[in-house]
Amino acid sequence: MASANIAALGTTRKMLGFSRRTVEVEFENATVADLLRQLNTLDGRTLYDNVVCNGKLRGDFAIMVDGLSLKADQLNRRLHGGEDVVTMAILRHLHGG
Amino acid sequence: VLLYHSNPLWNLPETDKVEKIMARMKFVVAIDIQHTESTQWADVFLPAHTYLESYLLNCLEPPAVTGHSLRQPVVEPVGDTRDAYDILTELAERMGFRDDWNDILNVVCGYTAQPKYLLAPEKRYSVEEFWDQYARSVYGDNKGLDWFKEHGHAVRYRTPEETYMPYGDLRIPFYFEFIRRAGDDMRRKFADVGLHDWPLDNYQALPFWKNSQVIEDERAGYEYFAITFKESLHTFADTMVMPWLSEVSEKDPIHSGVLMNSLTARKLGLKTGDRIRLTSPAGSIEGNVQVIEGIHPQVVGVSNTLTRYVVSNDRAKERGTHFNRLLTGSMRYTDNATGGLESSARVRVERV
To answer: Which residue in B56, B57, B58, B30 sits closest to B43, CA to CA?
Structure first.
């Protein structure tokens, strides 16, 4: 059984009710989608239900695994254990100089 | 509205419109190191530390070097002022969203790629703790704020590979198909919501020429191009509070009036010191003619460096040339693919 280090920011932190937690992934060859289904949110659903639409990550949320941001259709990425997974709502900001 | 070291009444085009917008604001808070045209609208003014009183881990920009240098306070803060980071953190805490504020900093500082450095939502970080965390995230745990206090900087020359192959083995695209795709996507989405007046013709994959609106404005009788420029001695407007720098830059006559070529001045019957009005499709400004040779006869130049209507430093007050009043903020003067605003204006010149 593998583990993943979850860091939840902003909206996803409020959905989950925690900011940092290490979780055991419940079965072999688990994917990011499996991990999201395993994370219960305070509204009685799961993080998957909240941030995924038609099998793809919603455009207003971001998930990073070991520093790399997943594209909407990359939720089937396999977890091998020990990954740092950051979940957050997209912060839209403009900057320049 | 929260103004943070920002002066929209000076920096945005169509100042009259900006004034009307500010007048409609119910509550204005300004964080700055000096009074400006915009802070005059503030219900609450929160004075921040200047660069002489505060820390900043400053990123040195390419191409020659890379790294950070630490700006350290060299004098005790004057008056009842605070570090701008502290002001924002205190505001977030009092308004009940310090946890979200820390998360915003987590994203802006790039800690999402290095979760071990994520700021905890429940903790309030001091200015020094904040910069210490940032330094460690960039340079490792043995180079925190104390290391920078001792060594000053971690700046080095970029290697030839970093300078000339900044993207490694990645290809640099010549045909920007994603810009064209973005345009097509926006066209579909705009059609879905019935938005038809947003121009999308600039979304092309290859560079192309298109006349700026200022070229077309000649037909409406605007004969000259008005341009603006800054002063190399100053960093934006913040350093206008430094009397030594201002004293040096004020001695340069290019900042003391509307620059005009001697041929143009002769044609218009003008000489240095004559009062003139520049009128563009957006508005008009007045200033004194400064006759020089180093400007094209069809161009007038307006320094936007030393002129201010409102500023703590009396030496920098009004000289009558607020260039941005000549600029138009409409889409006709805006690149609809990048949002870049046309920064020159077509003007008529007349004696006042």
So the answer is: B30
